Every structure is written in C-alpha cells, then in structure tokens.
C-alpha cells in the first residue's frame, strides 16, 4: 500500500481507511456527540447505512463528513474492503433503527468482520466514544457546523433563564 493511496482528500470526500462522521440536524444540535457514521473503502469511497434496506455509497445521508478517524490498514486481519462490502450486503437486508441497529452498527460489523486490531467486539457505543476521542475535524467550518447550533441553543436557554 503506497502512502499516496491513503491520503485524505477532503475536497473530493475521499477518506481511505477511515471511519467518518457527520452531524444529524436537530439531534446533533441537542446532543453534539450523536451523529451519522460511515466507513470508507481503501479507495476512500464512503459506505453508510443510511435508511432501511439501504447502504449508500459515496453519498452520506446527512452530507459530507465533518470528522474522520483514519485507521491502520495493517490492523485489518480479515481484509479491509471485503469486510466493508460484506457488512454492507448484510445491512441492505436490515431495517434501520435509531437506537440499536444503525449506521454505527454497520461500521462495527465491518470492523468485526476484519477483526480490526485483533478484536471482534466492536459496537456502536465503543465507536461513538473512540470517534469522539480520535476523530479529527476536516476543517474549521466543519467544527463550526458541528458545534455552533448546540452553543446557540445553550446561549438562548441561558438568556431565557436569566432574563425571564
């Protein structure tokens, strides 16, 4: 694997060997650590479980990624692309559920298939926490897109409580 093939290209939304994240309007505004997750093939093309019986390719359900976490392809024991493709085929038969069988579960299934890091115990909670810890914003505007609505709501609520 050449270094050239794992370069992030934010403009083209190419994130090879990455888990990617984007805010969900309204939900992320209230709970800024909750968002939509996908996983990219070695080519950087993103796959995400976007709706019941639908795994999108190269078109994330809630817009371009605002955060990414690039993983090490050498830690994928079961084959990176084949594991993502297998997880995607399985999730094309699933009903999407906000709380338990969702985009995070799709990514966890892919990581479990590839036994990433020698583990097959990936789950949505672990991924959410690790993305919050390891994720990098693609740009300052992406950071603002994620956090501005939350802080605006907090300021409005505080002002209402103070002045009314």
Describe what this molecule looks like in 3D.
- It is a single chain.
- The chain has 164 residues and is of the alpha+beta class.
- It has one domain (3-163).
- It has five helices and six strands; from the N terminus they run βαββββαααβα.
- It has helices at 27-30, 80-91, 103-113, 124-134, 140-163; strands at residues 18-23, 35-40, 46-51, 54-57, 67-70, 136-137.
- A six-stranded antiparallel beta sheet has the order 4-3-2-1-5-6.
- A hairpin with a 2-residue loop joins strand 3 and strand 4.
- Helix 2 packs across helix 3 and helix 3 (103-113) crosses helix 4.
- It comes from Sitophilus oryzae.
- InterPro entries: TMEM222/RTE1.
- This is Transmembrane protein 222 isoform X2.
